[in-house]
Amino acid sequence: MIQPERVVALRPGEPGRGGFVLLWVQSSVRTRDNHALEYAAGEARRLGVPLAAVFGLNPGYPEANARHFQYLLEGLRDLKVGLAARGIPLAVRVGHTPDEVLNAAQGACLVVTDRGYLRVQRQWRAELAGRLAVPFIQVESDAVVPIRTVSDKQEFAARTIRPKIHRLLDRFLVPLDVEDGAQGHPDWDPGLDVGDPALTVRALGVDNSVSPGEEEGGEVKGLQRLTHFVTRLLPRYDAGRRDPNVDGGSRLSGYLHYGHVSPLTAALAARQHSDGGPGLDAFLEEMIVRRELSFNFCEFNPMYDSYDGLPTWSREALEQHAADPRPVLYTREQLDAAQTHDRAWNAAQTEMVRTGRMHNALRMYWGKKILEWSSTPREAYDRALWLNNRYELDGRDANSYVSVGWLFGLHDRPWARRPIFGTVRYLAESGLNRKFDTDAYVRRWS
């Protein structure tokens, strides 16, 4: 079932006769629980025309480096195989994405795409809508509940969006029907060879200053990780996710960011393998409520990736204490190289640089120290976002922008006033020691 709330006509109209249906894949790089794919396949069957897919690969995508491109290409490799198993060809075309999709759409009677929440994604879809001569349909598949169905404004915090999402869950947290029978386009140029992602990354000539992380991307590995999590770790997730010295987290963030795993797939699998309890509740809170709060922020705040997009109260609180003495000032290069006096901070930064992720138990401490060690709160925000986007596999993501913003008061409330932070929440190293064995974590990453 594809709920009508997921479907928006970016360029209305009725498809013409003949031609083919083009699926522009961009955010949902998978075959399972992909509403845009199933909508396109259904339209191709209804119209009696072939179906083909295209992905526009832009080597100049803002802030993306070899780590990000390899993970993405691992997903495209799996997508090509998965679509081929259904007889649907995929072309990966290199260049300015709207140009490449427009070229691929020559002769199409309908273009279907997925939904993106960030500025560049919205700009690409708007640009293409203005240039196409055929109907252009957007189908939302990377949120369990469509974002504008939940709310038509920026929500203040999780507590304000949670009841709105929960009222709609029974309608949207349901399996997606899949029907075979769509006819693939018989003469489709495959474009870029994505069979060897590492080789392709080198050939693209993208920024290679950051090497790939430990985790392999793609739908196959993502579903394997999901199975491992829901069958072995989910019952202990509520407590296990808080300790960075154990494998207690889902580690799905990269797969979700690149669309290799659907949040619908993850949420349904968690429900299927659990009889309820705090583990399931905590996972669904993170997977649906917190994640879609991030989408809401990026959808309704045009300055979502800027210090100026933070709440007025937190910016005022920080700026009132901007002249407070700092215990030490580090350059961005020193932070990048994990060259500080703080062992726990260095370990967290090293984990992120090596693996492409940082455990959530360290993220708050990591960010609060950057605020302490920077000349101004604005500089601290820019540094935290730059480091996050440079190394995290899910960097440049709605969740990343909100995670960094939360360090500076986003979706939070005022706390007791203190130097440097004003009334923005603070965390000391002693707070880490109460939660887990900090020394063990430091030894692991030193």
TrEMBL record:
InterPro entries: Crypto/Photolyase_FAD-like_sf (IPR036134), Crypto/Photolyase_N_sf (IPR036155), DNA_photolyase_2_CS (IPR032673), DNA_photolyase_N (IPR006050), Photolyase_Class-2 (IPR052219), Rossmann-like_a/b/a_fold (IPR014729). One of its GO terms (molecular function) is deoxyribodipyrimidine photo-lyase activity. It holds the Pfam family DNA_photolyase. SUPFAM superfamilies: Cryptochrome/photolyase FAD-binding domain (SSF48173), Cryptochrome/photolyase, N-terminal domain (SSF52425). It catalyses: cyclobutadipyrimidine (in DNA) = 2 pyrimidine residues (in DNA). Belongs to the DNA photolyase class-2 family. This is Deoxyribodipyrimidine photo-lyase. Residues 19-147 form the Photolyase/cryptochrome alpha/beta domain. It is an enzyme of class 4 (lyase). It comes from the Bacteria. The lineage of its organism: Bacteria, Thermotogati, Deinococcota, Deinococci, Deinococcales. Its cofactor is FAD. Its EC number is 4.1.99.3. Keywords: DNA damage, DNA repair, DNA-binding, FAD, Flavoprotein, Lyase, Plasmid. It comes from Deinococcus sonorensis KR-87. One of its GO terms (biological process) is photoreactive repair.
